[in-house]
Amino acid sequence: MKPPLRPRLAPARYVTGPGAAAEPERPRAAWSVREKRALLAALRAQAALGLPDLQPRPLRERLPRRSEAEILSFLSRLRGRAAREAVRTQYRHCLEQQRCRRAQIPAPIEVWLELAETLAEGLEEVTAAAFSQVLTVAATEPLTLLHSVPPHPTGTAAPPERGGSAPGDPAAPPQPHGPGAFTVDFQRVYEYLARLCLCGRGPTLPPGESAVVLALLGSLPQELGSLDRAALHGHLRASYGTLTAPYPPGTDPCPPGMDPWPPGTDPAAPGTAPGGWGGVGLCPLNLFLVPLRLLARAGPSG
After folding, report:
1. Are 151 and 174 in contact (CB under 8 A)?
2. Residues whose CB is less than 8 angstroms from the CB of residue 145 and which lie 6 or more positions away in sequence, other chains included
3. pTM for the whole thing?
4. Residue 66 in contact with residue 60, Cβ under 8 Å?
5. With contact defined as beta carbons under 8 Å apart, do 165 and 153 qualify?
6. How many Cβ atoms are within 10 Å of 14's Cβ, its own excluded?
7. Cα separations (Å) of 159 from 138, 143, 152, 155, 252?
8. Alpha carbon distance 35, 29 (integer Å)
9. What is the Cα–Cα distance from 144 to 130, expressed in whole angstroms?
10. Given a cut of 60, is residue 278 above it in pLDDT?
11. Using CB atoms within 10 A of its CB, is residue 248 exposed (0-12), middle (13-18) or buried (19+)?
């Protein structure tokens, strides 16, 4: 008995034309070191030309055994790997910084600086302007002019040999006694410090005034040591405890001893609100409310 007739079909590898099956994708061959170097040279050549977009055809000419699709796919994989590595590196760096911050105990000055920044939030420009105004006024004080070397005249004409200026001209610059003489104009020092408070950078000072500013900075440790440190330490500890304590609801935020109402204001009047710096409970020029007596030099018994 003969088997039934079955249609004979040609193998798929022999079928051509529109109905032909798609050729199975061949496994990608690994990129050799020579191909990677050729690709790198081609990319550098395109970068030197300043082309806005990547041109795959010139890359294909350098890599005849690779198609444009293979080249673009390989570059896409490289970009993804570089992006992942950059994110991983940045993440490790952030973790390391956080670990260091947790392990490092902040210095006392860092704690006070952070507290001052929190208190003076939004008042930095006002504080800097106030200090600049104080220093600008100090630059024209008679004692400032008289302590210069040589001193400025303060309303009376100076002798000719001292290089005096016209009467009533306190801002005239002092003249040196002779060639190479050491001169200091304290008016320039105060103006330099005033500019420093506002913009963070002052004009270039001559050698004499620069030496005065350097001496002022170097004398800070000695001046701090001459204060009544016990009283100042106690006040600052009390201020720190008050400023960092939790704020109970329904209590007065104004510190003791500070009047939140401006002179001539009736607190009982309707619609009256605290005014001035007392209304916010602090003074931007003295954030920790240090009494001036604690900033004077201690006596012999102190």
Report:
1. yes
2. 151, 152, 153, 154, 170, 186, 187
3. 0.48
4. yes
5. yes
6. 8
7. 25, 19, 11, 13, 62
8. 11
9. 19
10. no
11. exposed
